[in-house]
Amino acid sequence: MRLLFLAAVAVGVSLRLWLSRRQEHSVLAHRDEVPAPFRDAIGLDAHQKAADYTVARTRFGRIRIAAGTLLLLLWTVGGGIELLASGFDHHSILGGALFLLCAFAVAAIVTLPLDLYATFVLEEKFGFNRTSPQLYVADLLKGALLGVVIGGPAAAGALWLMQRGGEYWWVALWAGWMALSLFLAWAGPAFLAKLFFKFSPLPEGDLRTRVEGLLGRTGYASDGVFVMDGSRRSAHANAFFAGFGKTKRVVLFDTLCDMLSVPELEAVLAHEIGHFKHRHILSRLTVGAIQGLAILALFAWVKDSAWFQSGLGVTDGSNATALLLLMWAGSVFAFPLRPLWSYWSRKQEYEADAFAKRETSGEAMTGALVRLYEKNASTLTPDPVHSAYYDSHPPAALRIARLK
Ligand SMILES: [Zn+2]
Fold first, then answer.
1. Residue 88 CB: number of other CB atoms within 10 A?
2. Which of 264, 353, 359, 383 is catalytic?
3. Is 349 known to be catalytic?
4. Which of 132-136, 175-179, 240-244, 255-259 is the least confident region?
5. 272 part of the active site
6. Coil, strand or helix at 376
7. How far is the CA of 59 from the centre of ligand 1 (A)?
8. Higher local confidence (pLDDT), 242 or 295
9. How far is the CA of 333 from the centre of ligand 1 (A)?
């Protein structure tokens, strides 16, 4: 097990570093010239800012990869989990839950310097950061509180099911995990997000009138179109769709509203409605559920094997340490599946784009995409292999070509 794990870590790290290098080279190789399809719409200054920003983030990403790998090895084969667990009665449900909370807290504190650097140095340097230190601390405390309030009972519940769930405890654990996922997908956008952001209905005006027309035309019966005050934290602009049932909503960042024309905003909104019309949330939840069941079946099979925990550096193993190993070490084995998820997500983006073109216009959607890439300093020239592996959205040039 130890060899298999170390081999998977080594392959994963090499692959990620290789992809990162490719991305950097691709962006730098195209830095001096705006790609032909964008030449009329994007200036050389903006193009070079996007290149520099992407390269800076890619390089910083390599530091994250190195630090993350080192920490994972320290936690597992380095004995970190074993050491931390020895301070808790981790074979009991309560002690195990406390141990899990503590492990996540330590992991968050250890990586805090990297997050601080990303926000206050990297984003700041390119003019994107708007988070004040006070707001950062407040977010951190709220996040920690949510982690304890939701994560604590979830951990205790999981350990209880593992201990008392009988032979098919893993099916019960899966059901519990599904219930939590559905609850978060339902409550997240409507309630939990309100702890961090302010949501307001679209103000009266031209946009509101056109949006109401669009909602009527597409049969999207919802009053859930909101503007979110993303500008308090970052100058980046975006839009997203979330929730289901009564909490279903489309959210536009206020930064986006300032940046796009009314027809372009309408096209972005139509794109998000396209995600609902094609049932993308439901299909993502369904595939996630099937994947989760497969992972837990595998986990049930290995959990009590002598080689599983000891191979990953835990000799006094309990359900709690097994669960932590599943979450942290398991991701190493899930990494090769990433391109499948990315491919599927990009397919859904094309579907949503096509919907936006049908319901509004290809020109408006194209205009919105060009403006978004420019203002967010997103690269127009990603490496194709890097993009195929990671990107949830197709490269701008391909999206625009399809819209035409
Ligand atoms: Zn989309």
1. 21
2. 353
3. no
4. 240-244
5. yes
6. coil
7. 27
8. 295
9. 28
